[in-house]
Amino acid sequence: MLEIIYQDEYLVAIHKPAGLLVHRSMLDRHETRFAVQLLRDQLGRRVYPAHRLDKGTSGLLLFALTPEIGRALSMSFEAQLVDKRYHAIVRGWPEEQGTIDHALAKQLDESEITKGAPQGPIQPAVTRFKRLAATEQPWSVDRYPQTRYALMELEPVTGRRHQLRRHMKHISHPIIGDATYGKGQHNRKFAEELGVNRLFLACSAMCLPHPVSREVLDLRCALAEEFAGVIQALGWEVPA
Length: 240
What we know:
Blueprint lengths: L2 E5 L3 E6 L18 H9 L4 E2 L8 E7 L2 H12 L4 E9 L5 E5 L2 E2 L4 H5 L7 E2 L2 E12 L9 E10 L6 H8 L13 H11 L6 E9 L6 E5 L4 H9 L7
Parallel strand pairs: 4-11
Antiparallel strand pairs: 1-2, 2-4, 3-4, 5-10, 5-11, 6-9, 7-8, 9-10, 11-12
């Protein structure tokens, strides 16, 4: 059963676990469980995802309970009226805080890929970041005798697909567990030492205007147990 963080007559927010697709995907044909289907069965009614979370990302996922509310929520996301905060574990020690202003090519959706569409246009993309903690572990990877990691708070100002993962790779601090934009050697060593194999990225807070009342909706989601356990194992404090 999915953990419900917030629910009213218009929308519902859940804690999506890592490894769960939001909806059916031709790129993951073997998968049989999807957040849309599970939540529909749990509530006994149709639900409409208002935004995306990658399969490997855990945390807050917002659904509308009617198509009209779904369109209103989508408009809020497109107008950048939704303040989202993520936590991530990355390789290396980034600066204590900063802004990544690096345009990204639009990633095509499944229908566009199937039709053989060319690469999408270049779009502006901005991410703010803050380093919360750092550590150096005596694990030899590649030519380095020790390995550095950092716990980050990430705020995507824009909402490009895979933006956080692509931006952290761009500044040479990829998110641990990222099979696409990270480095396999580092991901395998991290999983071997800490016993958890996942993408260490989670949406932990979201602030947005309610689509009906327009009051500020402040949603918070604790990190998944295995994510929090790794943070503690590295000697860090789990973010509140």
